[in-house]
Structure formats: structure tokens, C-alpha cells
TrEMBL record:
Gene name in the database record: mglB
Localization per Swiss-Prot or TrEMBL: Cell envelope
UniProt-listed PANTHER family: D-GALACTOSE_METHYL-GALACTOSIDE BINDING PERIPLASMIC PROTEIN MGLB, D-XYLOSE-BINDING PERIPLASMIC PROTEIN
Protein's recorded name: D-galactose/methyl-galactoside binding periplasmic protein MglB
Matching PROSITE patterns: PROKAR_LIPOPROTEIN
Keywords: Calcium, Metal-binding, Periplasm, Signal, Sugar transport, Transport
Domain Periplasmic binding protein: 38-313
Protein family membership: Belongs to the bacterial solute-binding protein 2 family.
Top-level taxon in the UniProt lineage: Bacteria
Keyword Metal-binding included in the entry's annotation: yes
Signal peptide: 1-20
Amino acid sequence: MRKSLIFIVSAMLIISSVLIMSCGDNGGTTVSADAPTIGVTIYRYDDNFMSFVRRNIESLISGNAHLIMNDSQNNQAQQNDQVDVMLNREAKALAINLVDPQAAQTIIDKAKAKDIPVIFFNKEASPQAMASYDKTWYVGTKSEESGDMQGQVVVNTWRANPSWDKNGDGVIQYVLIKGEPGHPDAEARTSHVTKYITENGIRVQRLEELNANWDTARAKDIVDAWMQKHGDKIEFIFSNNDSMALGALQSIQALGYNQGDNNKFIPIVGVDAIPDMLNEIKKGTIVGSVLNDALNQAKAVVDLALNVSTGKEPLEGTDWTLDEVKAVRVPYVPITIDNIEVAENTYK
């Protein structure tokens, strides 16, 4: 019995030390004792784009605040519990990448009860939730803008490559890999990419559309099935993000496409412009993407969090602006081989 007790106590000490290290001050950087504590949650650490946002937040906040960083593992109940812990640890501001945007009000109510400011980022709360607490802000993008810019890449590259119209009918026969059902970005990107294309005089025909929940492996499986069903009838693959676009590339390359043979090529376009995607654009296997600026989104989150955690106005000393729903909007940029250095510079 005594040995079991010793083992349990030892295990608790180890877990405690791990938690302390994980919530520490980033690589041993000294932080003053009176610096604010800022609590951050990421909906899923293994999301490719959010991994870059997280690393930038950690780097930018280092030395300026005590950081509590959490992986919510795509579980809203777990994120709610993490918010409770951060509030109990007297965090002076919360920066929340929601698992489920519908849960925003629950988190706002928790923070409001303790008069703690909240900055949501990447997944936007409803205007009603944002309006319910004067110390709530958002950092992100205009979702529809990414769909429009993806459409711009499609229009420009399609017109420059008439051989992509395999059946010569002047219509883009496309498949679309969608992100998470109901996610504002997924819905806006899905509707706006084709809206932009058709408004610019090119007809489209949807062959397939399916959710892959932002996941590379899931996207590969979906495109495997589509290729078996449609094969060379697919003239373009639209993807709501780069991770899924890379899964599509894996699928078609296994069948001999997009490997330097122009007779075996299906153009693919994504969103995020992550490094792996940029490498493929440089190789010519991917047509383009849309830069979702992880560096500047992280910078805006940190700027606002540091300000409000010390009682300052959210935009004090910054160049950011707020729109009518208290949101900082970081602009997207369409990326092809012609301007790929714009995206590469954000990762330096």
C-alpha cells in the first residue's frame, strides 16, 4: 500500500512539473514577476496552419508575459475546462481559437463573470456573442475574401492554359474538397470560389463536393474515390485549405498525374500558403494558394492580448484597426509561382 502511495505521489509530481514547464516562459526567457499571465487555447495543435500561428504567438509573447498554452484537441468540452483553469490561475486575458464557434457565448460568460478580456482568433464568434461583452475582440480574416482570391487564381491560370479544358466545352468540370461542416471559412470559401469564377465569365460544373474536415488523409481517400469514378473528366480540384489540397495531390500522383507530364495534369488550388504547399507550387505540381498570414494574425493576437491584459486600450501602440464587429482583419493574398516570395517571406 505504501509503495502504491509513493508511486502515486511521484507521478503527481512529474505531471505537475510537466504542466509547469508547458505553461512556462518559452525557452527560458526571463519574464518579470509582475508581467501579466495570458491564457491561450488552440483548437487542435496538429492543424497545419494553426501550428504556425501557435509558434508565432509563443515567439512574439516570449519575455512579455507568462503564457499558458493549451491544445484543445478538437474537443469543445475540454476547451471549456481549460478556460476555467486559466481563469482560476488568474489569467489577465484569454486568447481563444474556438473548437466550435457556437460555444463562444459560454466562454464569454465565464470571462465576463471575472471581468477578463477575451480575444477570439481564426474562428469567429457570432456578432450577437461579440456584442454581449464589451471586452471581447476578434482577430482573423474576411472568409469570403479567400474564396474570391482562390477564384482569381483559377480564372487567371485557366485562361493561361487552354489545354486544361480537356473536353473543349469551355466549362470547368471541378471537384471541391470542403473543410469542416458549418465552419464560416469553409462555407464562404466554397460559395465564393465559384461565384468569382462565374462572375468573370467562365462557366463551371460541379462533379463532386465533400467535407474532409481540413484533414490530409481524409482528403486523399475522398479524391481516390473521385478519381476512380470520374478519372480524367476532373479538370480542376478546389480545396478549402492546403492540407486537403496536399492530400488530393498525393491521390492523383499515385495515378501518374502532376509529375511533370503535361498530358497527365489536374490543376489544384488551396488556401493558407503553408510551406509544404509553397514547395509544391515551386515544383509545378500545385497551381496556387491564398496566403492566410499566420505571422500577422499571431502578431495582432499578441498585441491585443498584451494591451488588454495590462489595462490599456486594445489597439494602443499598434497599426491595427477594428471593424464594426470589433474585429482586426488581416488581409489574404493570392499566391502563384509569380509572387511566391510574398508567402515565403512570412515564414522567415
